[in-house]
Amino acid sequence: MTLTLVHSPNTRSTSFLWLLEEIGAPYEIQRVTIRHAGSEEGRDPSNPHPHGKVPALLHDGALIHEQAAIALYLTDLFPQAGLGPTVGNPKRGPYLTWLAYYAGVIEPSFVSKFLNITPPRGLAGWVVVDEVVAHIDATLKDRPYLLGDTFTAADLIIGGTFNMFGKSPIMPRADNIAAYAARCVDRPAFARAQAKNA
Ligand SMILES: N[C@@H](CCC(=O)N[C@@H](CS)C(=O)NCC(=O)O)C(=O)O
Question: Which of 89, 90, 95, 183 has the CA that lies 20 to 30 A from 50?
């Protein structure tokens, strides 16, 4: 079995170095260049992602892209890593919900706020950052991780995002999120991923 992560430093693919380090299975890294805001550079022809983005994962020739899909794919492929409840576990539904919520609500809400776009009330598929943060903050009131006592790939993605953007001026005040983000990244696999991030 060959697993290859298509990666560019200090991007969303860095979280997937972290996930692969958590899992502990052998993997390869294909480093690519990506387009950056305001620059004229084109797509890297070696990148198999249909939009030239990262992350992408190649598994024995199959291409998987989109962060939520890659997280689910890897945690299902390596259930022994204990990073995502499998089918039949009562926490499977909440797990899928948090992954889909990340892709469909958290990211669009953060990006639209960053771009200074207010989604028309009731029309967008997501809600404003204040509502997103209030929901996550309330979830974490009585538990260390989104699903309870156990760290999952949903925490890796969501906690990792707050670790990066938690201090941004667009972030509303929250009681539980800073400690949560610090807890998520305080793991040896996170440190190993940073060392490979170049
Ligand atoms: N929807 C994608 C977003 C991936 C994405 O936008 N990645 C950025 C890096 S953080 C990228 O590759 N940007 C280059 C480009 O858009 O061409 C996912 O969830 O994987």
Answer: 95
- pLDDT of residue 121 exceeding 90, the answer is no
What's the whole-number mean pLDDT along residues 82-90? 98
Q: Which atom of ligand 1 is nearest to the CA of 12?
A: 10
d(Cα 127, Cα 27) in Å, to the nearest integer? 37
Q: Determine phi and psi for 131, rounding to 5 degrees.
A: -70, -40
Confidence of residue 197 (pLDDT cuts 50, 70, 90): very high
Given this model, what pLDDT does residue 43 score? 94
Q: What is the DSSP string of 83-139?
A: SSPPTTSTTHHHHHHHHHHIIIIIHHHHHHHHTT-PPPTTTSSS--HHHHHHHHHHH
Cα 170 to its chain centre, rounded Å, is 19
- Domains in the chain with CATH codes: 3-83 (3.40.30.10), 92-188 (1.20.1050)
The alpha carbon of residue 128 and the mean position of all alpha carbons in its chain are separated, in whole angstroms, by 19
Kindly report the protein residue whose alpha carbon is nearest to atom 6 of ligand 1: 53
Computed over every residue of the chain, the mean pLDDT equals 96
Confidence check: pLDDT of 38 > 90: no
CA of 88 to the centre of ligand 1 (A): 32
* Separation of alpha carbons 168 and 54, rounded Å: 23
